UniProtKB/TrEMBL annotation:
Record InterPro entries: Aminopeptidase_N-like_N, Aminopeptidase_N-like_N_sf, PepN_Ig-like_sf, Peptidase_M1, Peptidase_M1_dom, Peptidase_M1_pepN, Peptidase_M1_pepN_C, Peptidase_M1_pepN_C_sf
Protein name, per record: Aminopeptidase N
Stretches assigned to the Peptidase M1 alanyl aminopeptidase C-terminal domain: 557-879
Family, as annotated: Belongs to the peptidase M1 family.
Reactions that this protein is recorded to catalyse: Release of an N-terminal amino acid, Xaa-|-Yaa- from a peptide, amide or arylamide. Xaa is preferably Ala, but may be most amino acids including Pro (slow action). When a terminal hydrophobic residue is followed by a prolyl residue, the two may be released as an intact Xaa-Pro dipeptide
EC number: 3.4.11.2
Upper classification of the organism: Bacteria, Pseudomonadati, Pseudomonadota, Gammaproteobacteria, Oceanospirillales
The Peptidase M1 alanyl aminopeptidase Ig-like fold domain, residue ranges: 449-551
């Protein structure tokens, strides 16, 4: 087999032929589904060579049964079929192409194209899954209206769904029936969807701003009918929010969501028929945590928002993926911030971003927000395209201001409605609406890697001036050795050390106010702030105003000061994180040198201060009391020593627990409540604060803490509390606490796969050294299956990604286990295989012994016959 070849952005050309209307008929059967396609094809006006060009269609794993043009069957010498294409040598200017193919949904374990999940049929076409359904120009710049007829068994598939509106249905001989759907909005084939099965629906409605009534349906398996309330409420809030915030109204009379058990990603925005991973839509107070409720809300909104940012205006090619994903993530983040606690939403997003996206940007698969080549596009549904893409849109909003941003957005949706466009088209609208020159800003889209800013500052008492120097540098990334300076908005304030207030700032004679944005465009820039009334501590990069690493030589006293006085909630939190990191650094060094560990009293006092301060935002307080994760600590180290990091973090946590035990107990009791569960900000905040307190008490296995955890577990009030208690009991060193609770839990929830996923994750993230045996044992558990992505993520993903001390065991057994799974998944589900391998690709960050072990496993994988997905990742990791 020859090595898979990359696709390049610079090779882009419009297609020679386009499809204006697509008629599909599916005769569904698990082993042999027949797909008839009638394509209305014409030459593309923008291609001068269209007349001489053959018709080239994509197709994979299809068996062609018939082909005709304008009703005339073709002779075998008039066309050619390969593993990936169907080419018709000569075609008229405008014609009808009829094809019929056979496919086998039951054999489809890759979950791309048409497949079966728990007996039902469903599809996932983005990015290039439609070519596994029928021969078609499978590219987003070909947009057609669709008319789809589904034929299924009336008993097994009473429900037959596709995009748009149902226009006809009827009985057929042999116990079969059909439904025809019409989607009037031209769309690329990646937005096509069908669902067929024995499903039940929950129905509601939404009246749009212009007074149209839209029917809303959530389709689930019968046993999940009681788990749709939150998704439905979230959908209605999202619809109203998009009208109010972006002036975007829904454009069909029907909007459907379907929950599917086997799904590679979170969800998919197919026109009028969103398909969701059941984990991203189903909630119930007894089965889903607060975090899961919030995730569902965010994903429901995300997919709904795609109806405009993605569907009405789509991407010209897959290099532009961030055009729809970055913008839509930004939109869903703002929606969640508006519905919940905005500062906490920002803290959570940034904490995740700085851990996971920074690691991606520093690793072998680093790529720009708009990559210039790929082998397998599925590998580019990444934190960089999504989350860094959203950070860049956020910077745009902050640079031009909300009003110009909204005008630019209106312009974008109006000008490009019904078109497939590029990132330039979007940024141009913002530039036009604001009058700003965004040409340097465009580098954010083409340069990979996390920019680093070194900041230095000094207060000149005699002149009342503050001198700030910012120096930026973006480290080399694979294929990009040299980087140009970026346009970086740095939001900042100067907090007076005497008053504790934000001081007025003047820069180059211009009054900036107390909170301002300065623009770093050069490699190095010097800023002189005049009339700074007293010596300040600078508060830099407020709200994480740019996705960069900013270093400033803060003393611990400075950080403790910002922790209490910074007016920016995000930076207050970040000051606490920085303070903890300094203490952790010392302890990591002490651990490595075998020196006795001593806790920094300044951290203890800072935490004591937090626990005693009057606070109105408990959710922020809970975040502030949460130590940086092991993964984030690792990100700060030149060489990752997983054992030292774990030991140091545990030591800090236990020291704080010992010193502040009574405060944590008090906080626990103050925030415990018997109120009926609601996924509302105030309750969520109290629960997270209470559970953070409990985690400190359990870190020292405090007798009273243990009793509280056991009581919280048995009370079974809601899954947030139960899961937290079970995790703490399971992660304690006492097997007598873990085993009975785990047993009770699995007996109670054996019937619910999404709850059993939590049971898997909790066990495989135990820090105890016997956990690897547990992972192997659980892989044989009847509730586990390598074919289900949620199970794989819950068990293997959680172990390899979150249990750092055990995954990185010095005997390499953790690496071996992951490689074995990757090799098996490479055959079953290449997309998931290429994702789950990530921790192994980060070998550069570890000591030589571990590097050798990790690389040996990557080599072992490379020796297999690989899917393009795994091939691309492994090649990069070993390059
Ligand atoms: N567009 C979808 C979303 O962001 C994700 C689709 C991903 N598809 C894939 N094969 N990875 O909601
Ligand atoms: Zn998306």
């Amino acid at each position: 087999m020859s090595a898979p070849q990359p696709t390049y952005l610079h090779d882009y050309q419009p297609p020679a032929h386009r499809v204006t209307h697509t008629e599909l008929t599916f005769d569904l059967a698990p082993g042999a589904t027949r797909v008839k396609a009638r394509l209305h094809v014409e030459r593309h006006p923008e291609r001068d060579d269209a007349a001489e060009s053959p018709l080239t269609l994509d197709g994979e794993q299809l068996s062609l049964k018939a082909i005709a043009i304008d009703g005339q069957p073709l002779d075998p010498d008039e066309y050619r079929v390969s593993d990936t294409q169907l080419i018709v040598h000569r075609v008229p200017k405008r014609f009808l192409l009829d094809t019929e193919v056979e496919i086998a949904p039951e054999a489809n374990t890759a979950l791309e194209g048409l497949y079966q999940s728990s007996g039902m049929y469903c599809t996932q076409c983005e990015a290039e899954g439609f070519r596994r359904i029928t021969y078609y120009p499978d590219r987003p710049d070909v947009m057609a209206t669709f008319s789809t007829t589904l034929i299924g068994d009336a008993q097994r598939e009473p429900v037959l769904l596709s995009n748009g509106n149902p226009v006809e249905r009827g009985e057929l001989p042999g116990g079969r029936h059909f439904v025809t759907w019409e989607d009037p909005h031209p769309k690329p084939c990646y937005l096509f969807a069908l669902v067929a099965g024995d499903l039940e629906k929950v129905e509601d409605s939404f009246t749009t701003v212009s007074g149209r009534e839209v029917a809303l349906q959530i389709w689930v398996e019968e046993e999940n009918l009681d788990k749709t309330d939150h998704a439905m409420a979230s959908l209605k809030r999202a619809m109203a929010w998009d009208e109010q915030t972006y002036g975007r109204e829904y454009d069909l009379d029907l909007f459907m969501i379907v929950a599917v058990n086997d799904f590679n990603m979170g969800a998919m925005e197919n026109k009028g028929l969103n398909i969701f991973n059941s984990a991203a839509v189903l909630t119930h107070p007894q089965t889903a945590t607060d975090a899961a409720f919030q995730r569902v809300e965010g994903i429901v909104a995300h997919e709904y928002f795609h109806n405009w940012s993605g569907n009405r205006v789509t991407c010209r090619d897959w290099f532009q993926l961030s055009l729809k994903e970055g913008f839509t993530v930004f939109r869903d983040q703002c929606f969640s911030a508006d519905t919940n606690s905005a500062p906490v939403k920002r803290i959570e997003d940034v904490a995740f971003f700085r851990t996971a996206q920074f690691a991606e940007d520093a690793g072998p698969t680093a790529h720009p927000i708009r990559p210039d080549h790929y082998i397998e596009i599925t590998n580019f549904y990444t934190l960089t395209i999504y989350e860094k893409g959203a950070e860049v849109v956020r910077m745009l909003r902050n640079l031009v201001g909300w009003e110009a941003f909204r005008q630019g957005s209106d312009r974008y949706f109006e000008r490009f409605d019904g078109q497939a466009v590029t990132i330039e088209d979007f940024v141009d609208c913002m530039a036009e609406a604001s009058g700003l020159d965004l040409s340097q800003f465009m580098r954010w889209y083409s340069q990979a890697g996390t920019p680093e800013i070194d900041a230095h500052g000094e207060y000149d008492y005699a002149k009342s001036e503050y001198h700030l120097t910012l120096r930026q540098r973006t480290p080399a990334t694979p294929g990009q050795p040299d980087k140009l300076p970026l346009h970086i908005p740095v939001r900042l304030g100067m907090v007076g050390t005497k008053s504790g207030d934000d001081l007025r700032m003047t820069l180059d004679g211009e009054a900036l106010g107390r909170d301002a944005v300065i623009h770093l465009r050069e490699e190095e820039q010097h800023f002189v702030f005049t009339d700074i009334a007293e010596a300040p501590v600078p508060s830099l990069l407020r709200g994480f105003s740019a996705p960069v690493k900013l270093r400033f030589p803060y003393s611990r006293e400075d950080l403790a000061f910002l922790l209490t006085h910074d007016s920016d909630g995000f930076n207050r939190w970040d000051a606490g994180q920085r303070l903890a990191l300094l203490a952790l650094d010392d302890l990591i060094a002490a651990h490595r040198n075998g020196v006795e560990k001593v806790m920094d009293v300044r951290v203890v006092e800072a935490f004591r201060g937090l626990l005693h301060a009057e606070t109105d935002d408990k959710a922020v307080l809970a975040e502030m009391l949460t130590l940086p994760s092991e993964a984030y600590i690792a990100e700060q180290q030149p060489l990752v020593d997983v054992d030292a990091i774990h030991a140091a973090r545990t030591f800090v946590k236990q020291s704080l627990a010992v010193a502040l035990r009574d405060d944590f107990l008090r906080v626990y009791h103050d925030n415990a409540s018997d109120a009926a569960y609601a996924p509302e900000p105030e309750q969520i905040a109290a629960r997270s604060l209470k559970n953070v307190a409990l985690s400190y008490l359990m870190s020292i296995e405090d007798e009273e803490g243990i009793e509280l955890a056991q009581r919280q577990f048995s009370a079974g009030h809601n899954m947030t509390d139960v899961r937290c208690a079970l995790t703490l009991l399971t992660h304690s060193s006492r097997g007598d606490l873990a085993d009975p609770a785990l047993r009770l839990f699995s007996e109670k929830w054996a019937h619910d796969p999404l709850v059993m996923d939590q049971w898997f994750s909790i066990q495989v993230t135990r820090p105890q050294s016997d956990v690897l045996d547990r992972v192997t044992f659980l892989m044989d558990h009847p509730a586990f299956s390598l074919k289900n992505p949620n199970r794989v993520r819950a068990l293997i993903g959680a172990f390899a990604g979150q249990n750092r001390v055990n995954f990185h065991r010095i005997d390499g057994a953790g690496y071996r286990l992951l490689a074995d799974v990757v090799i098996e998944l490479n055959r079953l589900n290449p997309e998931i295989a290429a994702r789950i391998i990530t921790p192994l690709t980060r070998w550069q960050r570890f000591d030589e012994q571990r590097q050798a072990l990790m690389k040996a496993e990557l080599e072992r994988i490379r020796a297999e016959e690989l899917s393009p997905n795994v091939f691309e990742v492994v090649e990069k990791a070993l390059a």
